[in-house]
Structure formats: structure tokens, C-alpha cells
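#lab-general

N.A. 3:47 PM
ok so I finally got the sequence cleaned up, no stray characters, all 142 residues accounted for. can someone with queue access submit it? mine expired

B.Y. 3:52 PM
send it over

N.A. 3:53 PM
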Amino acid sequence: MKFDEFTGEVQHRLELPGTGETVRAIRATLLTLGQRLPEGNAEDLAASLPMEIKWYLTGAVHEHGQRFDWQKFVSRVSEIEETDPADAAYHARVIVDLVQTLVPESDFQQLRDSLPESEDDENWDNLFEIVDNGGWSETTEA
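B.Y. 4:20 PM
back already:
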């Protein structure tokens, strides 16, 4: 998949008005995810993505392996994307679902294994809600 196809698919799924908003949502999600993941895991996940998209997970990140929970992730994505936390969380779920369709299963499992699942605010299982419900479809739209 090329950059234009990736951003077009995200724009369609999120029903965003323009490319600028779409790229901001992608950058916010993947940059923040790249900050949370160990560098090697981020590189593995990024390897199958378009060059311009993979940059957000790897090259744009100054410090990999930071420890923060799901709530802090949503807060950071919301701040970068300049949107409210509920929208930021939904955008992240949709973007991660698209990434899941493009990367090897082993790399996606490595992503999941890097993020703890629990009953508290650290519960990264929230990020995989769309993936776990069978993936995005036209009927998934809010």
C-alpha cells in the first residue's frame, strides 16, 4: 500500500474532511505508539508500512520504550491531533486496525505483547477493540 492509499483509507474510515486532518490523526497515533514501544518492536511494525507512514513510528520518535498507560496514550494522541480524547481514542483504534491488515501477524502480535492488558487504566486492550471485533467495515462506522 502506498502513502496516498493509506491516508485515503484512513480518511474514508474516519470520515475526515481533508488530508491534513487525516495525516494529523495518523501522525498522532503512530508517533505516540512509537514512543511507547521498544525501538526494535516499532521498527518491525513499521517495516511493512509506506515509507512516509513508517517514519512516524521510527524516525520521528526521539525516545522509544517510554512507560505510560492507555489513558496517557489517548491524552497524548488527543493533544497532537488537536481533538477531544474520545475522538482520538476512536481514531487510534481505526488506524491500528488498518495497520493490522498490512503487517505480518507476528509483528502485530509483538505489538500486542508489548502493551499490557489489565482491568485498570493501563488496559491497552482498548486499542485493539476494533481488531478484536472482527476489524473495520462499513457497518463499524459510528
